[in-house]
Write the structure tokens for this entry.
Amino acid sequence: MLGLPKTLLLTVGQGIPHVLLGILGLAYAPAGHAGVLIPSAMIAVSTIGGWFFLRDRPEKAVLIGIFIIMVGATLSGWQSMSESGGQAWLGDLLFIAAGALWGIYTIASRAWDVDAFQATALVSVISMLLYLPLYFIWGTPGILSAPVSEIVFQSLFQGVFAAILALLFYTKAVTVLGATRGSIFGGLVPCIASVLAIFVLSEVPSLIEVAGMVLASGGMIYIFGFRK
């Protein structure tokens, strides 16, 4: 059974501190930076941390695949990464910190063999208890005046799919595959974002972004053994 210290560490890694760092970073840098830097930092921390703390030394093929995935993730968000200035560096640092926390969660959940349902429930509830009082005391509760349709949409998208189901599936994947192999799915974040942008925002990716998606997907296929 998880005690309070372990529960708090898991909450820091994938709960409200992780989320706030990512949201704060968006005030300084484009979302495209987040799509590249957060998963890349998570993969790096998970791989290095798993190596040192879990004695899970990755095979050469896994290291090669991770490198390919991170190159692909960078190319997928290349346009956004190259078209910014000002204080974008500050947002980038916040994104890297958010990704590092995600990596810490990955290592901790594997080290403690955390049950996916238990971790999801604890992280969600503790995050709510920590954030709600601060939100209503010092924030601007726009939710009280928001349209019902918007509240329902955000509750389903952010509350159910992004917060609960994503965390549940990810924790289970780490438990089954290990910290290093479980973390590599984060490399598909910028690729999936680029694909969704075609249908949702009518944004056609450039050739370099398409090359990045192909590389990231190929790196995952290579790691999971579909190679000669």
The radius of gyration is 18 Å. The chain has one domain: 4-223. The longest helix spans residues 148-177. Residues 4-223 form one domain.
